[in-house]
């Protein structure tokens, strides 16, 4: 019996979720389990789940939106915007398989899987406790300070950065297999992680000056157009470090696959956020969580992404005491 786990690509929580679910499958299915295939999914304007996605004997989705496919055996997600279209929620609520789970209040999908596996199925993996803890920290942006998130000294944060930067399609799957059984520090020191990561970290620290020059703060919102600054990616916490008084951040980015607007709320801000970011992003076909979200458009729609970003900035600047 083979298994296929579809997961949120190039995301620490997505990969950690796939690693933990793989361990759960190994314990639950035992010697009857053959190969586990990992299939990355990216949020995009078109249908993100291909029609032939569920080709294994056991099929699962973690840290990604719901699918009503009868071939989907397991589903775990914690995104507020998990049901797109909204009619999918009725399908989920009518499901009686006992193998599809959703909790938009969970800090991470990895932690959610760990809780459900323990409470519903009596499964625990104590050696993966560090992986679960860091998934909660990273996905909920629960760092003790913006400086910790920018300096990237912790192994988990280096792995996060590696995932976000890698263009090797085989790397996330290889990483998932390593995370399934090995400590984070050991994985982060692997040559196939540390080698490609070294120039990424060098660019990261150099890019801080470029971000400082290109970003602006207005009305409590820090805005950055990475594409205009000549940067393809950037550490999203740099803006909180440079502008600790910002309540929100809005960033435009562009690569060969998509034009993207990323929206976040400052976890260290006082007063705290007053808007539901997932709902704002849903207006443009995106989604996420109340505290963080994104809108993905086709790669040739960079101008549209910039327009969406401007509108979101205006929304976040308006009525700071009201909930959007």
Q: Note the overall shape.
A: globular
Largest beta-sheet characterization: 6 strands, mixed
**Given the structure, what is the number of helices?**
12
Got a strand count? 11
The neighbouring-strand order within the major sheet is 6-7-8-9-11-10
Question: For the CA atoms, what is the radius of gyration?
Answer: 19 Å
Head-to-tail CA distance between termini: 47 Å
Q: How much strand content do the residues show?
A: 15-25%
* Mean pLDDT, all residues: 93
Global structural class: alpha/beta
What does this protein look like?
With 324 residues, this protein is α/β, with parallel strands linked by helices. The protein has two domains: 3-188, inorganic pyrophosphatase (n-terminal core) (Alpha-Beta Complex); 215-317, Diaminopimelate Epimerase, Chain A, domain 1 (Roll). 40% of the residues lie in helices and 17% in strands. The protein has helices at 12-29, 88-94, 109-121, 129-139, 146-151, 155-165, 171-179, 184-188, 191-214, 238-242, 277-282, 302-317; strands at residues 3-8, 36-41, 58-62, 74-77, 100-102, 216-218, 221-225, 248-254, 259-265, 287-288, 292-297. Strand 6 (216-218) and strand 7 form a beta hairpin. It is globular, with a radius of gyration of 19 Å. The termini are far apart.
Offer a quick outline of the entry.
This protein is α/β, with parallel strands linked by helices and 324 residues long.
